[in-house]
Specification:
The complex is a heterodimer. Chain A is an alpha/beta fold. Chain A has 15 helices and twelve strands. Among the domains of chain A are: 34 residues, no CATH class; 252 residues, 3-Layer(aba) Sandwich (Aspartate Aminotransferase, domain 2), CATH 3.40.640.10. Chain B has three domains: 44 residues, no CATH class; 114 residues, Alpha-Beta Complex (Aspartate Aminotransferase, domain 1); 267 residues, Type I PLP-dependent aspartate aminotransferase-like (Major domain) (Aspartate Aminotransferase, domain 2). The chains are: A alpha/beta, B alpha/beta. The interface between A and B is large, with 222 and 225 residues.
Chain lengths: 520, 470
């Protein structure tokens, strides 16, 4: 950061937009629906005559009644009070890889040959989609070294659940499910690994990090036994530190008869650098909405490519997309399959975007994306470590890969302003407040930036300059930081009522019941 | 690093060699490879990935991909009668406009300060769905109807402390497969046993006698769908709920909300937890990419405590009269509780949640009544026209909503053959049920929505007549 960065002035749009339930007037229509013509009506009569009388709705739903321009205006205003990654330098949302999703790919997935496709059409009429699914499977095989991928999970956590289901079926097929009911994960693996393993019925053993931040190998040895169903582990972990003993981990788990699953939801720093197969893994997943550029869509739909070795392919959820001669085919005949984890065979728009992204880069480009994301991260780290109040935990002798776990612990001690205060103050500078890291907060006052390859050197300088400015404010005018945001679309919410059954309201009707029609 | 032969990528600003060199110098290394020093050499991939050569220009890439996708035949190119969990309804242009907005499309989680729009739009989804369902508590939706049902089954087991759930055999097999994954496997912890209940072969309705035989004090819940997968409007929801409650079990109902302008919502016949999809509400089929599933219940503390999903609550802020939003009891979720959480939540269906919110606001109460009427009249017209074709029978019903079973046994032809023939007429015939419901013989599930015209149905009928005459 050679030149002084000039911070831009920002204020979010403030619309004080009413709730849609308060809007409109009785009788207004937002859209009209094609009706049965007179001839049809003459033949069939009243619709109600086909409904059992006790199944006829007597009181219409109390939905709002608005005309179309007013509905559009409302939701456009709401969109203005939302901050996409395209509108900000979203380096703060670490572990999520807020990568640019090329607009050209968006145009492709909005073609009617994508949007107006039913998943159960005759296979001959969806050869284009099946070809792309198949090709992406081949690409991910090469990137991971594994042998077969599916795209049924429409989120990363559903992929880890898929894995837990597969472990269940695998051990049941060997008659060992009675005995193997434990899954091992690490504290700095994504929390969905622990949560989905538990939801699938397993007991979860969590390995704590050692004082340098590495998952403890001795603890793994102690945890492994004939009760071990498998290992579910992220690498690099949420600290950005790559676990160099990962091969030992997989050997130890394999030695006791467990399977090893690599959570590669975020593989952005290691594309073309290192793979699941060489590290000894039996299965892995990639989030197409992180590493492979599909947009996050205000919390989904995402899509995960979940892949396994040849030995485990027979357990995958159905259908598989396979190639028979020149034709692509949906294969349902998998007697050992775990069944399904979601309807149909994937979030296809995300698959197409990932395909297009890989095709736009090729092998060299993927490697370049990985290397630049790691360069960006280490560049940012060096900038951030010069900022008063920021410290970094764990091994100081190694470079982090695509992201880094930092702490505002010192700032908190010095000024009283912690990570949540900084996060709110970032909003005033037009940045998405940084991700405060997964719980539990072993590192106090944590934050985890991830400056993926989308961001330019100047973007990163700007991001660092904002944090430097906020640090300066905390030391000179902490009240300004504590009471932030000041330039946002809204102000600090009353969070106590979110946990109070007498006050919380997930619907407008519940709100009216609990707070009265005046909202007081 | 000043390699002039290297590519510069428009999506990777720091692929410019001079910039990269400056950054590496600042970091204090001479080559990016040094940053990977922690990875053991035996794990380093020292070969180039075997991927196709890149298509570097946007123009060529777009053409390449468009040409592949153009091999598809869409339901606008062909006349479509497939439904069964993914339906072709009209998607208002405003829905596409809003979900194409960069601010929604490219945001992720974030705070309610930065992302007030999403918080409010999701709350508005919950509020409007609450009106359609006549219920006070609706979640931010999850991945799909089947996954929502899977979570609901587990919620019911936790709420009752029991581990058996009864489901009529008319449930969608696709959804049932998902529910089974969620229900788990004995002997692992939290496993829920799924028992199937028979249906009346004449009407397609649930066999209440069989339900009475199977329900017991081990039953956590009875889960029915209405309209059923086979299109039947089930009139005995009340009897099912009463039976469930009599045995201390919960009543779970899966519903297609497009029906709720005209059909009574499950809360009117005793449902405790309601699940369903919002895909018909303004979301394209996307070859199955448009799935989304919600969970609703009474607004009671015990229920809230068992929800795995995000629940957005309205609240106030430090400014008088200003609405705020936040996560209700966020500590329930797996983001905080890890394995102690109530199942899990993650990246789900946020963009579709916003889209469905827009759809409900556009439609209003009259729109939902109109679409319900149009669907019933058009699908009943199709039923009637098809039933008049020699060799075709309509076995179940007659009270069906938008889907119905068409039987071809007397034609001597398989559904597979008929559907393959229909493709030549640019028609996608109904879903082949012969594998899923062998007792129905050569039957197909036909779906008729508001989009079908009388001429479309006549074209189907005349095409079928030609095929059957061959």
């Amino acid at each position: 950061m050679k030149d002084e960065v000039k911070l831009q002035h920002f204020h979010a749009p403030v619309w004080s937009e009413p709730i849609i339930m308060e809007m409109g007037c009785p009788g207004e229509r937002g859209i009209l629906v094609p009706q049965a013509d007179e001839e049809t009506k003459k033949v069939v009569g009243e619709a109600e005559s086909y409904i059992p009388s006790n199944m006829i709705r007597r009181i219409p739903p109390r939905l709002p009644e608005l005309s179309q321009p007013q509905v559009l205006r409302h939701y456009l205003r709401l969109s203005q009070m939302n901050l996409g990654m395209e509108e900000n330098i979203e380096v703060g949302t670490g572990t999520a890889t807020m990568k640019y999703s090329p607009k050209a790919h968006e145009m492709l997935v909005r073609m009617t040959q994508m949007t107006e496709i039913h998943p159960q059409q005759d296979e001959q009429t969806i050869q284009g989609i099946l070809e792309i699914v198949y090709q992406l499977d081949l690409f991910l095989r090469e990137i991971s070294g594994l042998d077969q991928f599916i795209f049924q999970p429409s989120g990363g956590s559903l992929a880890t659940f898929t894995n837990a289901c597969l472990l269940r079926t695998y051990h049941a097929s060997r008659g060992e499910l009675n005995q193997r009911n434990e899954i091992i994960t690490t504290l700095y693996s994504h929390p969905c690994n622990a949560a989905t393993a538990k939801a699938a019925g397993f007991k979860v053993i969590t390995l704590m990090p050692d004082d340098k931040g590495y998952p403890d190998l001795e603890a793994l040895k102690a945890a492994c036994s004939k009760r071990t169903a498998g290992l579910m582990i992220t690498n690099p972990e949420d600290t950005g530190i790559y676990n160099p003993r990962i091969l030992d981990f997989t050997h130890i788990v394999h030695d006791v008869g467990g399977l090893c699953f690599y959570d590669q939801a975020n593989a952005n720093g290691i594309l073309g650098i290192t793979r699941a197969r060489e590290a000894g893994f039996d299965a892995c997943h990639f989030n197409l909405h992180k590493t492979f550029s599909s947009p996050h869509g205000s919390y989904g739909p995402g899509c995960a490519g979940y892949g396994v070795t040849q030995e485990l392919a027979k357990f995958l959820p159905v259908p598989l997309v396979i190639k028979k001669g020149d034709n692509y085919h949906l294969e349902y005949d998998l007697p050992h399959s775990i069944g399904k984890v979601r309807e149909f065979f994937g979030n296809i728009p995300a698959v197409v975007r990932a395909y297009a992204w890989i095709r736009s880069l090729g092998a060299e480009g993927l490697l370049e994306a990985a290397r630049v994301s790691v360069i960006n991260n280490n560049y940012l780290s060096k900038l951030l470590l010069k900022i008063p109040g920021i410290v970094r935990y764990y091994d100081e002798n190694v470079f982090r890969l695509e992201l880094t776990r930092f702490s505002w612990e010192k700032l908190k001690a010095d000024t009283g302003c912690g990570t949540d205060d900084v996060r709110r103050r970032m909003v005033d500078y037009g940045l998405q407040g940084h991700f405060m890291s997964h719980r539990p907060w072993i590192v106090p006052e944590p934050f985890t930036p991830e400056p993926c390859e989308t961001y330019s050197q100047k973007d990163i300088d700007y991001f660092a300059a904002v944090l430097k400015q906020i640090s300066h404010e905390a030391y000179t005018d902490p009240e300004r930081v504590r009471t932030a945001p000041h330039n946002a679309a809204t102000h600090k919410p009353n969070t106590a009522s979110l946990n109070d059954p007498k006050k919380w309201a997930m619907t407008w009707r519940a709100y009216l019941q609990k707070h009265g029609s005046q909202g007081d | 690093m000043m390699n002039k032969g290297r590519n510069i990528y428009p999506y990777i600003p720091n692929s410019v060699p001079e910039i990269k060199a400056r950054m590496l110098e600042f970091i204090g290394v001479s080559d990016a490879d040094e940053l990977y020093g922690i990875i053991p050499e035996e794990l380093r991939l020292r070969k180039k990935l075997n991927l196709p050569e890149p298509i570097l220009s946007e123009a060529e890439l777009r053409r390449h991909t468009r040409e592949i996708l153009s091999k598809n035949r869409s339901c606008e190119d062909y006349l479509n009668f497939l439904g069964g969990g993914c339906w072709q309804h009209y998607v208002p242009a405003v829905c596409d406009e809003v979900n194409g907005r960069s601010e929604f499309l490219t945001a992720y989680g974030g705070t309610s300060y930065n992302n007030l729009g999403r918080f409010q739009a999701h709350f508005e989804f919950q509020s409007q769905m609450g009106e359609l369902l006549d219920m006070d508590l609706v979640s931010v939706p999850t991945y799909s109807w089947g996954t929502a049902a899977g979570y609901a089954v587990r919620m019911a087991a936790r709420l009752t402390g029991r581990n058996e759930v009864l489901i009529p055999r008319t449930v969608s097999p696709e959804r049932l497969a998902v529910i089974r994954s969620f229900a788990g496997t004995a002997p692992l912890a939290g496993h829920v046993q799924i028992e199937l209940i028979d249906y009346d072969p004449k009407t397609g309705r649930i066999d209440l006698e069989n339900l009475k035989e199977k329900i017991s004090d081990r039953t956590a819940a009875v889960y029915i769908e209405n309209p059923t997968y086979l299109g039947i409007i089930e009139p005995r929801g009340n009897a099912v709920s009463e039976l469930a409650h009599k045995h201390g079990a919960l009543s779970l109902v899966g519903v297609d909300p497009i029906s709720l302008g005209l059909l009574a919502p499950p809360s009117h016949y005793g449902a405790d937890i309601v699940v369903g999809t919002a895909q018909p509400l303004g979301i394209h089929m996307h070859c199955g990419g448009g799935t989304i599933g919600f969970i609703a219940s009474r607004d009671e503390e015990a229920y809230v405590a068992e929800f795995p999903l995000f629940l957005i609550s309205i609240t106030d802020t430090i400014v008088e009269g200003e609405y705020g939003f936040g996560q209700c009891t966020f500590d329930r979720t797996s983001y905080v509780g890890r394995e102690r959480a109530k199942d899990w939540v993650g990246t789900v269906s946020g963009l579709w949640t916003i889209t469905a919110s827009v759809y409900m606001a556009l439609m209003g109460p009259q729109g939902f009544q109109d679409i319900g009427r149009a669907i019933i009249q058009k699908s009943q017209f199709a039923r009637k026209m098809l039933s008049e074709v020699e060799g075709i029978e309509i076995p179940l019903g007659p009270q069906t909503f938008k889907e119905f079973v068409v039987n071809f046994d007397k034609t001597g032809l398989t559904v597979r053959h008929i559907n393959e023939s229909l493709v030549n007429y640019r028609i996608f015939g109904g879903k082949d049920l012969s594998g899923e419901f062998p007792e129905l013989g050569q039957s197909a599930l036909y779906c008729v929505t508001e989009l079908h015209t009388r001429e479309d149905i006549q074209k189907l009928v005349s095409s079928l007549k030609e095929i059957l005459a061959q």
